[in-house]
Design brief:
- The complex is a heterotetramer, with two copies of chain A and two copies of chain B.
- By secondary structure, chain A is of the alpha/beta class.
- Chain A contains twelve helices and 14 strands.
- Chain A has two domains: about 180 residues, Rossmann fold (3-Layer(aba) Sandwich); about 130 residues, 3-Layer(aba) Sandwich (Rossmann fold).
- The longest helix of chain A is centred in the last third of the chain and has 17 residues.
- The relative contact order of chain A is 0.12.
- The chains are: A alpha/beta, B alpha/beta.
- At the A-C interface, helix 4, helix 6 and helix 10 of A face helix 4, helix 6 and helix 10 of C.
- The complex binds thiamine diphosphate (2 copies) and magnesium ion (MG) (2 copies).
- One magnesium ion binds next to strand 4 of chain D.
Chain lengths: ~325, ~325, ~325, ~325
């Protein structure tokens, strides 16, 4: 066991999987040089230029070539340098990777992993801050993971690489170097599709993922200390397929659901979570299913004061907890 | 049928192979016609076929090693998949969207061919995306040290998409064993090629990616075959990609939903009908004493019978099970 | 007043706007020839090749060129031949058209309309059937309209063309020739952002849009006749900005909300509608906010039996009404 | 300062214009350096600048009619926007993300220039999307019968994107008045050009779109100007697009987040520093008697003072009002 930050955990997962399975390759912009976040640091030296491959600046080709290669015995990990730049590859992901198995009646599979740093809070401005999980979480045939801790990142990325279907693996970039937490050196996986209760509580359920997990945990500490409110915090970890059971079990216990996400409020993935609770836990609800998210403006304006104004933070979450708890 | 005779064109083809090429072209034509007829009879809601483009299809596919090389066709390529090994029955099952169709079990639109054991890669209806996939299969072949070739087909319209560019650039950089085949049939639906590009021959673009591009008479199956043979050989030798532009014409409307009289004159269609690649190849074979009128008619009969039999089989095959609509979104078993 | 089907209404709106304002142009694949659905029929003859422009087969260029032209005094209506083929233009729509005004602090605006036929039910298979409104309804800076009647189509398309911001105008293709309804010959507009109660009721609120409007109306007739249930049917018409007031007013009256959409259940736009109701009408709810939508498989498999199995229809909606009414 | 003297290169430039070009290049350099310094001082979280590419920027922009022609720059183009009319104050306000910055009021990342009255079009950080916009502005000019030219700048990396292809193809088809300027600085972040393309000169691609492409020494401001002048004149005469590839080098890391020692040797950077376009142009002017050492130093002093003053002004300018973050998602008033 060693202390690792999340980007190191991501790197370890790739390196171990490349070691374990010679079919695994990494491709993307600047990956041979270690990547702009250093997530592929050292892979070129370890595995050579045939397995750690710099691509031209062309996201549709990065994903499309990965798709083709995956049909021919290669297991590609495609890196999109920032989730904001995944849009040119949308067609290859949605029309192709996600539909290949279905449209061929199970004849073909597409075992690719697409990694992308996402999320705001690093003064990245409107093109280095976006959340894209709502768009892709809506796409049948694609799995979507959103990680925010070193342990989860390593275990889930290994599962993604080993998964027979395409997985979009979103790493919250603000969480890359946020903590150094214990990560086992040995091989382990975390199943895709399982949420985790990251904090037990009884008065209210916070359902969240990504960077908002850390803000929610902070807010939960605050309201516990200041108001005696006991908040349970659920980290979805996987957006698709979604772990409804863990969500519903918690809400049935607490009777109150606060869904917290960083993305724009309208049509964000938290809308789906709220809709499920509203339909399936209706009899247990003691208050409105409440959402805390960013307002509907492009995420995120660059200037610090603007970015801060827009994004959810522990204080905004704590205030929503208090309101809902008092309902 | 002819016995083994030397090919007159010096392409190393035997007489049997030439006859087989003709047979595949005629079969492709007959299947296309049948599918469109089934549409007019109200038996299938949609038909997209490739009558007129058989030389471009059969001539290119003939240069491949079926089952070994990677085949990434588009929606007109009945001739391609026949050469690679699909049967009339496969194609009629597919057109009629029957549950046992290997292409998609009725899930994909007709003419969206797929056959994993023949390495025919399933395609979307989205124009040009498949070009990138062929670069991917070729990339894997190279990384794995296998001497497979990937071939991908697409229309003139597809060359305008960003994906076509990204694919060709990637292939050029890595010198991949891939052959790009543009079936230039003059139109993207109603849009003539002059509104799609400002160059006479789109093959000129290949040099912007560092590999050769050739333009060939797409209605001359042997000319097409010759350029494909060379391209495949180059690729197999590790010398990289080739772009082949086969100038041809679709003699039928774009799809069963299209009325081509809206955008092209009957005179223009007639002019191209005179260059029909099948009639032309038959004439060539007759000229060279490889085919006589009786052999030609026998072949036509054989083709018609096969298509009839395949149609009958497919019409009687069961529709997909409705509940199967929920299957195969993800792999049913773990691992791969 | 004349009877028109929806595709004629769309055509009329464009023709009248092009007549009214010489800055308006139409561009897209096959538009000069009238378009694959005949929506641009005759515009070439009426307005000439400088205002009705065939483009090469390149969706990103269609939208990107429209964006650039809109900065220079032109008001483009860009046609995407099928909504399924909008994905290659995603980047131009989301990163560029929708963010241009915001990122330039109001300095630039982007008055483009992007029209696209969408939706299933015509045996179009997985690439001529998709719903894309959830993806784009989530994007700040973009307006999204989903029409399903001739009258709404004409009035809303005129508003879209006149709007100073980018509008994605989605026309349900199954509704193109479904009815011939009265459409005024004269100029009129319908404001973007206003839902309409298409049927009054008191027991349950059906909130829907697109082709599902027609199915919902049918289902409402059925349950009225067979079960005496009085269902109100709201046609959202605009997805973004969303008319919350009309939705909430209805649910406050009926106490029961059934959200009906054709798109995949998970993360479809109906999730947002459900989430809003769950949060803002909580005190009025007499039953769980319920959703009827397609299961999470690619929309839609081609074979008739498969397509039918997947899509919502009047019978499925009626059965959900009965269940919820009985709650 | 020099008085009006004839340009030695025969490009029709006056001595004043040559001096002005040098001044803009030096100003661009000084602003880039200042912004990077502000980053190291912790005053701005991010800096992306273009030291080394000033000749490519100033030489091309100089061929335009400011306020009339359309300017679609990318994030290194400090030299471009200075030529068109932005001031050091504009640029420092922008780098420091102040509320009154005309580019974005602190909303866009630094170096994402915008100025509606100067027809400088706001850009995303997304590589290559802007190339299509310039084709759009040029298309509108043509449709409206205006003799405006659009010019768009981008890096070598941008040429790999599908959008670059679609833009060039569209421009070729319609023969639009647009000039594509590729500032080929050898790298896309750490990826050398040899991994981005399989051709020596990417300008060769232009012929695949039916218009001329030229490769020019991007560190020679007059050579750049000459090719830009020709391209702009062609465009203005209605003869269509031109692609200009200006081979140059970025002397600084990609951005303030980049450590370029990871991917290129100090020797390589040194080699290019010897070809510094500013030093080279100064030497040229001195050789031709248009500049002496004192004039050069005076100019450097003037530039430094202007940048200091602009910095001071911008540092004292107020930050954006936090609540303004909710504004300008849509037009505030109706109509346009
Ligand atoms: C990305 C995309 N845009 C639009 C369409 C609609 N469409 C189908 S076929 C076609 C024309 C294709 O022309 P071409 O590539 O020349 O092939 P051809 O049909 O002529 O064989 C179009 C526009 C599509 N399928 N995909
Ligand atoms: C679509 C997209 N992909 C990736 C990035 C990340 N990125 C920013 S700049 C850059 C390299 C650009 O290289 P080039 O076009 O040569 O311009 P240069 O920076 O060298 O001037 C990359 C990959 C981006 N901004 N946009
Ligand atoms: Mg064609
Ligand atoms: Mg570069």
């Amino acid at each position: 066991m060693a202390e690792k930050n999340m980007v190191e955990a991501v790197r370890d997962a790739m390196s171990e999987e490349m070691e374990r399975d010679p079919r695994v390759i990494v491709l993307g912009e600047d990956v041979a040089n270690g990547g702009v976040f250093r997530a592929t640091q050292g892979l070129l030296d370890e595995f050579g230029p045939d397995r750690c491959i710099d691509t031209p600046l062309a996201e549709s080709a990065i994903v499309g070539v990965a798709i083709g290669a995956s049909l021919n015995g290669v297991i590609p990990i495609a890196e999109i340098q920032f989730a904001d730049f995944i849009h040119p590859a949308m067609d290859q992901i949605v029309s192709e990777a996600a539909r290949l198995r279905y449209r061929s009646n199970g004849g073909w599979g597409c075992p690719i992993t697409i990694r992308a740093p996402y999320g705001a809070g690093i003064h990245g401005g409107p093109y280095h801050s976006q959340s894209v999980e709502a768009i892709y979480g809506h796409v049948p045939g694609l799995k979507v993971v959103c990680v925010a801790t070193p342990y989860d990142a390593k275990g889930l990325l290994k599962s993604a690489i080993r998964d027979p279907d395409p997985v979009l693996f979103l790493e919250h970039k603000r969480a890359y170097r946020l903590h150094r937490w214990d990560v086992p050196d040995e091989d382990y996986t975390i199943p895709i599709g399982e949420a985790e209760v990251k904090r037990d509580g009884k008065d209210i359920s916070l359902i969240t993922y990504g960077m908002m997990l850390h803000h929610a945990l902070k807010a939960a500490e605050t309201v516990e200390a200041e108001d005696g409110i006991s908040a349970e915090v659920i980290d979805l970890r996987t957006i698709s397929p979604l772990d409804k059971e863990t969500i519903l079990k918690s809400v049935e216990k607490t009777g109150k659901a606060l869904v917290v996400y960083e993305d724009n409020l309208t049509g964000g993935f938290g809308a789906e979570v709220a809709a499920i609770i509203a339909q399936e836990a209706f009899d247990f609800l003691d208050g409105p299913v409440t959402r805390v998210a960013s307002p509907d403006v492009p995420i995120a304006p660059y200037a610090g004061v603007l970015e801060e104004y827009v994004l959810p933070n522990p204080a905004k979450i704590a205030s929503a907890i208090r309101d809902l708890a008092a309902y | 049928m002819v016995s083994v005779r030397e090919s007159p064109g010096g392409l190393g083809l035997t007489g049997d192979q030439l006859m087989d090429m003709l047979y595949k072209m005629m079969l492709a034509r007959a299947i296309g016609q049948r599918v469109r007829m089934l549409n007019r009879m109200g038996k299938v809601p949609f038909a997209v076929t490739g009558e007129g483009q058989e030389a471009a299809q059969v001539g290119t596919a003939y240069a491949l090693a079926p089952g070994k090389d990677w085949v990434v066709p588009y929606y007109r390529d009945i001739g391609v998949v026949l050469v690679i090994g699909q049967t009339p029955r496969d194609l009629l099952l597919e057109a009629l969207a029957r549950g046992e169709s290997v292409s998609s079990g009725g899930r994909n639109m007709p003419s969206h061919f797929s056959d994993p054991k023949l390495r025919i890669v399933s395609g979307a209806a989205v124009v040009a995306t498949q070009i990138v996939h062929a670069v991917g299969t070729a990339f894997a072949s190279k990384l794995r040290g296998l001497d497979e070739v990937s071939m991908v087909w697409f229309g003139d319209g597809a060359t305008s998409e960003g994906d076509c560019h990204e694919a060709m650039n990637f292939a050029g950089i890595h010198g991949l064993p891939v052959v790009f085949v543009c079936e230039h049939n003059q139109y993207a639906i109603s849009v003539p090629w002059t509104k799609q590009m400002a160059v006479e021959n789109v093959s000129v673009r290949a040099q912007g990616y560092g590999f050769p591009g050739v333009t060939v008479d797409g209605n001359d199956v042997l000319a097409v075959y010759g350029s494909a043979r060379e391209a495949v050989d180059r690729a197999r030798r590790g010398e990289g990609p080739t772009f082949i532009e086969a100038k041809t014409y679709r003699l039928v409307p774009h799809t069963s939903d299209d009325d081509d009289r809206r955008y092209r004159s009957r005179e223009e269609v007639e002019k191209w009908a005179k260059k029909d690649p099948i009639i032309r190849f038959q004439a060539y074979l007759q000229e060279h004493g490889l085919l006589d009128a009786k052999e030609r008619d026998d072949l036509a009969m054989k083709v018609a019978e096969e298509v009839d039999a395949a149609t009958e089989y497919a019409e009687n095959a069961p529709l997909p099970d409705p509940e199967s609509a929920l299957k195969h979104v993800f792999a049913e078993e773990k691992g791969r």
